[in-house]
Sequence to fold (225 residues):
Amino acid sequence: AEELLQKSDKLSLVGQMAAGVAHEIRNPLTALRGFVQLLQSQTQTADHQQYFQVMLTELDRINFIVNEFLYLAKPQAVNFQRKDLNMMLLDVISLLDGQAILNNVQIKTDFSSDIPYITCEENQLKQVFVNILKNAIEAMPTGGNIEIQVKLQDRNQVSIRFIDQGMGIPPERIPKLGEPFYTTKEKGTGLGLMVSYKIIQEHRGNITIDSEVDKGTVVEITLPV
Ligand code: ADP
Ligand code: MG
Fold:
């Protein structure tokens, strides 16, 4: 079952909420983190060391979530440039190589060589690729293969497909993808896909998710060239 996901109304609502709250949380958070770090460095006992470490990890988690929200809220200072898509994907793959190896996951590529440069905000688009590739790795707890295909769909569109052999997504859950905080992971945030939808929308592209339980998932992004 293939479903086109359109989350724009949900996104704008969340964006408005985020604008008020996220920014105010960040400064006290920075102060907290600094003092926890200071206390940790002055502490002698191993027990306390460990407590401070837990505090730092959790503070970082809050920080990460707040930053994702700020991203949604803020009108981006956009700097679109023409970039080589295949190079961007290779960068992202090398970024996640360590995590893939740790999880017994092999990432293969099938890139067309005739892909024209695309006009994009490079870091944002890379963020989307990271989010999707991470999800693919996390969907395969016992390892497997991920294939990333880049094809020219027609003269105006390029298609990027992330194909995993993971646990898949039940059809009734597909509409929930991209909702804020929808996660099935113990340590998940449920923000990765939401941010990805927003970024792809800003690039006038589309994300389509096609999945079969116990077989795997295909996430396809199309972008104008
Ligand atoms: P998170 O990864 O923090 O849970 P995301 O927004 O990235 O948040 O993903 C939301 C949910 O979508 C995941 O918790 C998972 O249930 C599902 N999902 C996303 N990608 C995949 C995938 N490739 N395979 C299986 N499930 C996926
Ligand atoms: Mg994720």
The radius of gyration is 19 Å. Residues 24 and 66 are 10 Å apart (CA to CA). The first strand starts at residue 2 and ends at 4. DSSP finds five helices and eight strands in the chain.
